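Fold sample X.
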Amino acid sequence: MADLFSSDPPERQKPKSGAPLAAAPLAERLRPQMLGDIVGQHHLTGPEGAIGRMVAAGRLSSIILWGPPGTGKTTIARLLADAVGMRFAAISAVFSGVADLKRGFAEAREHARIGTRTLLFVDEIHRFNRAQQDGFLPFVEDGTVVLVGATTENPSFELNAALLSRAQVLVLNRLDAVALAALLNRAEDVEGRPLPLTAEARGALIAHADGDGRFLLNQAETLWSVDLSEPLDPAALGAFLQRRVAVYDKDREGHYGLISALHKSLRGSDPQAALYYLARMLTAGEEPHYVLRRLVRFASEDVGLADPHALAQCLAAKQAYDFLGSPEGELAIVQACLYLATAPKSNAAYRAQKAAWKSARETGSLMPPAHILNAPTKLMRDIGYGKGYAYDHDRAEGFSGANYWPDGMAPHSYYQPTDRGFEKRIAERLAYWEELRRAQL
């Protein structure tokens, strides 16, 4: 993959029999020929990395390469096979079925009989269903193949536990600006000419690549394919190239990662970061009602009674968005987001719910004390329902201090307000009532 290419000059590359032709796309011509040429993934390919150690030992175990598009998963697999002298076979879960898998395993067994081991590379492995994934297990276990799977999705969500237990998951990094700049330098060495860009436009091109080296090189190749009279500035570059759309699958890892980042930024009272993640989601096409549901939940879970208006703000934002639609209504979502980020925080209501639910499950069907039960019939009155009930409004303080817990169950304290925001006043009120209750004992 393009983002694994070295920034070293062309003479350091060691061409092989399978080296790309001059007419091949730029990304293919820059495909590295050695693991040492890879950039951006040194934590894996370096001497102390998992891949570096495997190659040094001359023995591979099955692995799953998990990383964003354009981070070199295919290239790593090819170079691994070369580095340890294994036969390389590749299939794509997008285009392959059960028949292709059976044929691949049969070929691997035939080569094993003559002493040649097979590295089977499965691109987009997460696209195989659970039953198809199970089909790999016997061939991985008996050593027919060393499996190298590639996925852009979280393996813990998309791959069988049985398959994951037999493979090591290696995480590839999204390429940073330094690595992407190195790719452009390498491309200019191969092309023998600079990119027709100003320094500012070069930085914009790197930023728009969003960590994908292959995309960056394809854009560079497009720039070289036309005759430009002068270098492009950022505005001209934006008009010339279609801007890359952010990677965001609404039912996959990007979705859960960004909503988690938004939630934790709100909890951490960082309105700037929260607004950034909100923008990431909405500009990538996230359903605004999903974001609003998460904000409503946050208002109860992480703000609670520290600011009772937080929940009202979120519900008002939902109503405003329904009334205005996009894009005008998105400002109401922004307002709710900023309100939550700047509100005092308390998870006391959330913790109280969990504790109360636990008690309810443990105590079964304990009856409330008879004095707080209604008595609509004579029989119920005769057996003591409602007898001795203290009507709080008849007391001077509007507080009777009566016991409301089931017989045989000691009072519990589920809700513990913090000293932040409105909850500080609630805590004072609870303490006052507790003093009155003790005075009546």
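Fold sample Y, listed below.
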Amino acid sequence: MSDRSFVVSNPDKVFFPADGITKAEVVGYYAEVADRMLPFLVHRPLTIQRFPDGIEGEGWLQKNAPDYYPPYIGRLAVPKAEGTTTYPVVADRRGLLYLADQAAVTFHVPPVLADDLVHPDVMIFDLDPPPNGTAPVRDAAFAIKATLDNLGLPSYPKTTGSKGYHIHVFTRRQLRNEEFAATARAIAETAVGHHPELLTVEIHKDKRRGRVFVDWLRNRFPSTSVAPYSLRPEPHAPVAAPLRWEEVHDIDPQGVTLRTIAARLDAPDPWGHHRRVPIAPVADALGIARSSTT
């Protein structure tokens, strides 16, 4: 399917009222970023955030793929405590555009691929800023980077399109979910140990005392994080935009939007040469117990 043959339903419906951004613009945006977005989206069980009447209308998170989805949208049935969740899985831009036309404004992805829900391949640190502005979360991002550098782990920042930044580490599939999450926690705690006045792993907001929360909890299935290049349901349609490290100094968490991203797409891809690295040696160095069946 070419983009030209894709017909947007209700193209003039306004999805972002404050900016007059229509559904056609949203679908067009995803067509424009597809080549960069799909490597981080395809073959993963998706959770989508849908807003059929725009972001000021009712929206919801949807994990189950309805029966009416076309055959090029894959389905992955995952047992849960009461029943089964049947996730949608896309393989190409057709699936991405179809879901965008189904009013999916935001795409959330787990740290695993659909063919192996046990071994994550991307570690994410979500930096949740305190109420006193962006400067502390910028400092936090570089503190996490320094810790990862010391462990030999290349890292890649992105805006969240919301309040903070995400730091990604792309790994080989060597650890099981709990081992992977424990490794992420140990890395976060190491960073906190170096910067106790700036960082915390305290979940309760009333105990953070103005420090940046290093959220390591997204590193096991079925937890998710916002996909790179996904839109967020906020005024101006901010983007979860991959950055170069030097850009963290200048670009706010909502600093890239649907209507400002074009120049970035014309420039070299900041994550175009991201590397996937071994994570098992890091787990061993941090003293993480590992299963003999990993």
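Sample Y note: The CA atoms of residues 35 and 165 lie 22 Å apart.
Also: The first helix runs from residue 23 to 37.
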